[in-house]
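# step 3/5: fold
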Amino acid sequence: MFERDPNPLEIEILVLPETTLMLFAAIVEPLRALNRVMGQELYRWQAVSIDGAPVATASGVPVPVNEPFRPEGAGPLFVTASYNVASQFAPGVIRPLAQAGRLRPVIAGIEAGGWVLAQAGMLNGHRATTHWEDLDAFAGRFAEIDVVAQRWVRDRRRLTTAGAAPTLDMMLDLIAARQGRARASDVARLLNYRPSEAPAGGRPGLGDPAVAKVLALMDAHLDDPLPVAELARAAGLSPRHLQNRFRAALGTAPQAHYLGLRLTAARRLLLETRAPVLDVAAATGFASPAGFARAYRRLHGESPSATRHARARPVVSGLD
C-alpha cells in the first residue's frame, strides 16, 4: 500500500461507537483533498458498521455507513475507536475482525482501534502504538505487543495510530508514498495543516526554511514563473545548492515542482471555473497554448479540454 502506484485505492473504514468525528475526518479529508488536487478519483472510501446502522460518535453526531461489516474484502481495513473501547470486545466484533485479519492485505487500528485489533490477536509480535494516555495500560494488557511511544507505526501488514493528528500524518505519508511528496505537500497546504515533523511551511518532511521561502515564492508567482536563479538568490543560495536542498526536502527538482504546482492550479481552474482554456494557460504562466497543452497532457494524461468536459463528474466523495 505504501508504494508508488497510479491505480485508485479503496479503503474500508469500520466505525465503532464513540469514535470522534475528528478521527474519522483525519482519514477521509486528506483523501478527499488529494482527489481535488489531482482532479481524479485516486482514493475511494466507504464506512461500515458492525450491524449496518449509522454509528453514534462521541459527539452524538451519527456517521452514515454504506453497509454492514464483512470480514472478506480485497482492500485495506481501518478500524476506528476512541472511547469506551472495552465495550467493543464482544465476540460479535472480535470474531469477524480476527477473520478479516487472515483475509485482508492491510488492517489499521486508528487510535483506540488498536485495542480492538490487539484483543483479536492481530498485533501479537508486532510493534504498535496507541494514544499517549493509554500507552502504559496498553502495554500492560497486551504483553505480546512491542508497544512504542510513536505517532503512528507501520509493521508489516498492521498500522496503528496514536490519535487524530497522527492519523492525518499517516494519511499524508500514504499519499507521499503513492503520489509523491510534492502532492502530499499540496494536500497539507490545502488543509492548512503542519505535520509534526515539519517545523515550517505546513509541508510533509520539510524542515528547511530556505526551501519553505522558495515554495512561498512559487505559490505567489504561478502566473509569472520566476527563474530558478532568482528563486535561489531570494533564498540566499546558489542554484546548485537550491537544487540539492529541494531534492532533500521534497524528492524532486525545483523546476519540476514549480511546473507541477502550475499545472495542478490549472486543473483546479478547469474543473472549478468557467474561465476559457487560454485564460487558464495565462493564469498559470504559459505564454504558448500549445506548450501548455503538451505540459498538461504529460502530467495529467489528458488534454485541458478533456478535463473541462469532466467538470460534472464528482471526484471528492467516497460515500456513494
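# step 4/5: annotate
The chain is about 45% helix and 15% strand.
# step 5/5: archive (pending)
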